Amino acid sequence: ANPNVASDADNPVTRIQSRRVGGGAGATPAQLARETITAERAARAMTRVQQLDPDWRPPQTLIDPENIEHRIERNESDIREADARYAELLRAKFGDNMPPRDPFRRLRTRESVIEEFYPSGMTVSESERIDKLARDPASTGRSRWPEVATILRLEKETARSFKRSTAPGADFEDDFGRTWDAIGSDVDDHFFNYDRFVARLKRKLEVAAADRYVLDLALLREDNASRVLTYFWTLPTEQQARVTVLR
């Protein structure tokens, strides 16, 4: 075996760790950010597929572990393979009854949130709960499904429970009573404008209407997410400490 070539591990957690086997020597901050984002996206994409097809693995890829661009390309390839397999599984499951999907904002509807977070189905109580999470009191009860997707991701990240908040300037409240405001839930690459995005982030952190913030970059390509993260890392430490980033 070639000691300079690495193959994929089966376990998603191991995969994230193994993607950094070459280290970051000589890599730029932007490359390191892209690698982290694509590695985590690949692991999430694999996990989503394996909820429906536990034995599925992407095609094995051999790379030079010292080349960060090769590692990033492998991550991107695995994301494409996993997304294609997931779409195939959904077609097999729903046939012609697949819910309509927005090509740009995949998590905007109730149906797409269920597809993303409850691929094996949901209970009545779970259905009622996401409906409550979607209703925004500040918008006369209008449903905000992108924010629901963000808060469900955050629950997975933090192992905490959230509910809608009635506090001005906040979207949700956690089980410690802290208020949270979601940023980036409804922005993907088609609608992304860097200047407006970071200006909105800066303004919210300066106003500090909520106790904590969740910055959701899950719908952005790695290059756009990296630009936001590069800006985020320039913020004062006390502001960074109040933000949880989802990638």
Task: Give an overview of the whole structure.
Helix content is 49%, strand content 10%. The chain is an alpha/beta fold. It has a five-stranded mixed beta sheet, with helices on both faces. A hairpin with a 4-residue loop joins strand 4 and strand 5. Helix 2 (29-52) packs parallel to helix 3 (68-94) and helix 2 (29-52) crosses helix 8. It is globular. The two termini are 34 Å apart.
Shape call = globular
Distance between the termini: 34 Å
| Tally of individual domains | 2
Mean pLDDT: 81
Share of residues in helices: 40-55%
SSE string: HHHHHEEHEEEHEHHE
Low-confidence spans: 1-21, 99-107
Please count the helical segments.
Answer: 9
Structural class: alpha/beta
- Alpha-carbon Rg, integer: 19 Å
* Biggest sheet features: 5 strands, mixed
- Give the total of beta strands: 7
- β-sheet strand percentage: 5-15%
Strand order of the largest sheet: 3-4-5-6-7
Key structural traits:
single chain; about 250 residues; alpha/beta; 2 domains; 5-stranded mixed β-sheet; two-stranded antiparallel ribbon; 9 helices; disordered N terminus
Please render the helix and strand layout as text:
Layout: H1 12-18, H2 29-52, H3 68-94, H4 110-117, H5 124-134, E1 135-136, E2 142-143, H6 145-158, E3 162-164, E4 172-174, E5 179-183, H7 194-207, E6 212-216, H8 222-232, H9 237-240, E7 243-246
Parallel strand pairs: 5-6, 6-7
Antiparallel strand pairs: 1-2, 3-4, 4-5
